[in-house]
Amino acid sequence: MKDIAMDHHPGQRILVFLPDAAAALIATRLNEAGYLACVACTVPELQKALAETEYRVVVTTRPDIDTVRGIQPLPVVNLEIFFHPDPGRTSTGRRTKRFDAKAFLDRVRTLTEPAKAREEPHALHSPMPSDGLGFRLWRLFRLRAAPNGTQLAR
Prior knowledge:
This protein has helices spanning 20-32, 43-52, 62-71, 101-112, 115-118, 132-142; strands at 2-3, 13-17, 36-40, 57-60, 76-78, 83-89, 95-99, 143-145, 151-153. By secondary structure, it is an alpha/beta fold. A five-stranded mixed sheet has the order 1-3-2-4-5, with helices on both faces.
């Protein structure tokens, strides 16, 4: 396990479980974005890292998601979904793929920010709507029938 970042941002530790070169590249991107990224390239390194340190997220590929979750049930970012076909072709005529770094960092940010910050704006307002259809639906869900057929508020 190698620490790639120098700054520690509490609650934003990320473990990158990929082969050496890919792990270093992704960890560097995460470091540049302000995260503390640690690299584990083998299953024993992964086990040791997850046993010793609290991580918010693990970055890996689809075949290794079950391995990660078998050790610790953490949110996992599947790196493969951020590679998209590039419409251009290389000189050999083969299709290439482009890495969507912005979408990747957005996903990581979503998974590492505190839960309260991720709440929907409407969840931060009063639980009881004040008028219109929303109020009528709210009342329907708040009222339930009593055994004798009368309505009781919860």
